[in-house]
């Protein structure tokens, strides 16, 4: 059983470092195990991960921490904990929130049966039944959060299934040479070509090409960075498209401008 | 509410496909007669009648969860006031996605 000293839920904030005995591993691998927005249906379809017995696989990804939005039911308060069920219209799941101090009591005090809440918690299986060990719970501020939560679930699911479904063995180790088709060819060919086992998964075709060009040893070797015209010329892509790509890559922190706004370097290489 | 009985997200267009099943919808309240029937506009602009015991007062937007008993009406057992400001377009889009391409995440 978890002792109260192992749980740090001060301030009602939530992050994977607040999980209990698994906090060490999840704090380290925080990037690999983010807080995943899910529906209860997705949780009920999840299977115990074979690689990591303390997490579940949803859409092929190991998941420990989840985010749910739904209606609270059957709230039952005890001295050390509060139990309730969350129903988000796709199913119901039992939740447990440990109570350690006044902050926790206040937080769960705002939960009432029939009220919509957002919960963040650790997915656990107890005697074959899935349960959520909740770090944080709060009532919805406005109900658009419901729509945006479902959208986030859809987006995350789509991102993971696309990535896992699209990695094919032969391709994408040298996409630059593979692309001698003009820009129209980009649009008509499926974006399959450009997804691969890079950490830049999820980038669109042109974004990937620019990043890969900047990651080439010849680009990395240039201290001043690479001029965007050179990128456009070399990749045979119109400058406006390159400019758009540069803007989005820069905002994601994948590239940075060097001596002026025309020269760029990759943040991950060199 | 029945334990773990999912409710399909619907708008006016999708409601007829789920008659007899548990559904949920957000409606904009147009009028409410005293005897428990609320006339509302679904998120795609169609008229829906909701029967049951609405809370008083009703806000502009209400989510109703219950059994669809005809192409245009729901017998609701859960009513939740969603306030006076709500993004109907966003919700409508979710209804379409939840009944279409991403149905497996919801039902």
TrEMBL record, chain A:
Superkingdom of origin organism: Eukaryota
Single Gene Ontology BP annotation: double-strand break repair via homologous recombination
InterPro entries reported for this sequence: NA-bd_OB-fold, RFA2-like, Rfa2/RPA32, RPA_C, WH-like_DNA-bd_sf, WH_DNA-bd_sf
Keyword field: DNA damage, DNA recombination, DNA repair, DNA replication, DNA-binding, Nucleus
UniProt KW Cell inner membrane keyword: no
Principal place of residence: nucleus
GO cellular component: chromosome, telomeric region; DNA replication factor A complex; site of double-strand break
Stretches the record annotates as Disordered: 1-35
Annotated ranges, domain Replication protein A C-terminal: 171-261
Gene3D superfamilies referenced in this protein's UniProt entry, alphabetically: Nucleic acid-binding proteins, Winged helix-like DNA-binding domain superfamily/Winged helix DNA-binding domain
Record's compositionally biased regions (Low complexity): 15-26
Molecular function via GO: single-stranded DNA binding
Cellular compartment(s): Nucleus
Nucleus keyword on record: yes
Family: Belongs to the replication factor A protein 2 family.
Role: Component of the replication protein A complex (RPA) required for DNA recombination, repair and replication. The activity of RPA is mediated by single-stranded DNA binding and protein interactions. Required fo cell division in meristems. Involved in the maintenance of transcriptional epigenetic gene silencing (TGS) at specific loci (including some transposons) by regulating histone H3 acetylation, 'Lys-4' and 'Lys-9' methylation.
Protein name as catalogued: Replication protein A C-terminal domain-containing protein
Species in which this protein is naturally found: Coffea canephora (Robusta coffee)
Automatic annotation (TrEMBL), chain B:
Protein name: Replication protein A 14 kDa subunit B-like
Alphabetized UniProt keyword annotations: Nucleus
Location(s) in or outside the cell: Nucleus
Gene Ontology cellular-component terms listed: nuclear lumen
Gene name, Swiss-Prot/TrEMBL: LOC113695315
Family classification: Belongs to the replication factor A protein 3 family.
UniProt keyword annotation of Protein biosynthesis present: no
Biological classification of the source: Eukaryota, Viridiplantae, Streptophyta, Embryophyta, Tracheophyta
UniProt cross-references to CDD domains, sorted A to Z: RPA3 (cd04479)
InterPro entries, sorted: NA-bd_OB-fold, Rfa2
GO molecular function, one term: DNA binding
Organism: Coffea arabica (Arabian coffee)
Main localization (coarse): nucleus
One of the GO BP terms on file: DNA repair
Keyword Amino-acid biosynthesis part of the UniProt annotation: no
Family annotation (PANTHER family): REPLICATION PROTEIN A 14 KDA SUBUNIT A-RELATED (PTHR47058)
């Amino acid at each position: 059983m978890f002792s109260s000293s192992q749980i740090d839920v001060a301030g009602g904030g939530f992050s994977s470092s607040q999980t209990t005995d698994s906090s060490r591993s999840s704090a380290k691998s925080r990037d690999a195990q983010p807080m995943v927005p899910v529906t209860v249906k997705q949780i009920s379809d999840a299977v115990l991960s074979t690689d990591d017995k303390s997490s579940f696989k949803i859409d092929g990804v190991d998941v420990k921490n989840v985010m749910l939005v739904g209606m609270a039911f059957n709230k039952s308060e005890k001295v050390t904990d509060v139990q309730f069920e969350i129903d988000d219209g796709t199913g119901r799941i039992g939740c447990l929130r440990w109570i350690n101090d006044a902050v926790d009591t206040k937080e769960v005090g705002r939960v009432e049966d029939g009220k919509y809440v957002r919960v963040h918690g650790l997915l656990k299986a107890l005697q074959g039944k899935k349960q959520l060990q909740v770090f944080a719970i709060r009532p919805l501020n406005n109900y658009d959060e419901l729509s945006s939560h479902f959208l986030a679930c859809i987006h995350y699911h789509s991102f993971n299934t696309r990535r896992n479904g699209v990695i094919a063995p032969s391709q994408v180790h040298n996409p630059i040479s593979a692309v001698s088709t003009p820009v129209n060819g980009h649009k008509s060919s499926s974006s399959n070509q450009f997804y691969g086992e890079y950490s830049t998964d999820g980038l669109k075709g042109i974004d990937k090409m620019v990043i890969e060009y900047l990651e080439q040893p010849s680009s990395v070797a240039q201290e001043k960075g690479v001029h965007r015209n050179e990128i456009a010329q070399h990749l045979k892509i119109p400058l406006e498209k390159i400019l758009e790509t540069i803007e989005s890559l820069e905002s994601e922190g994948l590239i940075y401008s060097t001596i002026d706004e025309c020269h760029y370097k990759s943040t991950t290489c060199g | 509410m029945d334990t773990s009985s999912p409710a399909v997200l619907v708008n006016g267009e999708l409601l007829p496909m789920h008659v007899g099943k548990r559904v949920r919808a957000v409606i904009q309240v147009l009028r409410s007669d005293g005897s428990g029937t609320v006339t509302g506009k679904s998120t795609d602009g169609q008229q829906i009648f909701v029967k049951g015991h609405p809370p008083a007062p009703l806000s502009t937007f209400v989510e109703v969860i219950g059994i669809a008993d005809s192409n245009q009406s729901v017998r609701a057992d859960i009513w939740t006031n969603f306030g006076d400001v709500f993004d109907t377009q966003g919700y409508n889009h979710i209804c379409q996605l939840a009944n279409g391409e991403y149905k497996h995440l919801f039902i």
